[in-house]
Amino acid sequence: MVxxxxxxxxxxxxxxxxxxxxxxxxxxxxxxxxxxxxxxVESQPTTQLYRFQTDxxxxxxxxxxxxxxxxxxxxxxxxxxxxxxxxxxEQGQIATNGNSLSFALSGPGFFAIxxxxxxxxxxxxxxxxxxxxxxxxxxxxxxxxxxxGGNPIPLPADGKIEVDTKGNISxxxxxxxxxxxxxxxxxxxxxxxxxxTYTAPATAGVRAATTTNVLQYAEEKxxxxxxxxxxxxxxxxxxxxxxxxxxxxxxxxxxxxISVVGRSS
Length: 265
Known about the structure:
Elements: H1 2-27, E1 40-43, E2 47-55, E3 67-76, E4 80-84, E5 94-96, E6 102-106, E7 110-114, E8 121-124, E9 127-128, E10 130-131, E11 137-138, E12 144-145, E13 161-163, E14 168-171, E15 174-178, E16 181-184, E17 191-192, E18 197-199, E19 206-208, E20 213-216, E21 218-220, H2 226-264
Antiparallel strand pairs: 1-4, 2-3, 5-21, 6-9, 6-20, 7-8, 7-12, 7-16, 8-18, 10-11, 13-14, 14-15, 16-19, 17-18
């Protein structure tokens, strides 16, 4: 019975983690460039069970009677556990707006941004940018948007800004820079850092984008699925309740067994 309680507790822990993951996806359903995550579950390592007993008989070298034997019973599971929470990098819906410094990406690419405090480079698909006080392209949090050479992108104080599908920036028809676009050989190696930014370890294999286009006056919506998320939320809450009830039932049975056995002995 104790083993059953541990298995049920493991299931409840996984169910709660799944609820938290789905809740985070729902909370960011209106966040531009957000990519939902998926909680993957696996079985915990199994334990091989054997029965050890003493059969009638006599082992010649032993003084005591009996023949020790063992027989294989089978494998015993111990519940479930979290395997991974990968990010689903599916394309989100693209919506237009009237902001000339708002960009959406069509394809697998990312923008590169640099943290002004740590100088670290990360990657994002959230293209809601703005002009900094020093006339450079930045994110709302103040991170510097980088060009194809890893440098800040200057924005002239006057003139109409136009950006083509390859990220080339023109002001009144004169090309003044290019937004850096990057793709990865192993996109699943990206590490989440906040809601819409990712760091790229060496295993990600960053490279210049070749199949990604920039869309000006647009933004990429979250790829979260509200309907499926709500269904998953209800399912996992029922799963949690079932495991909680199993724990309570086994606990009551254990208490009764202790009380009855203790009284009868």
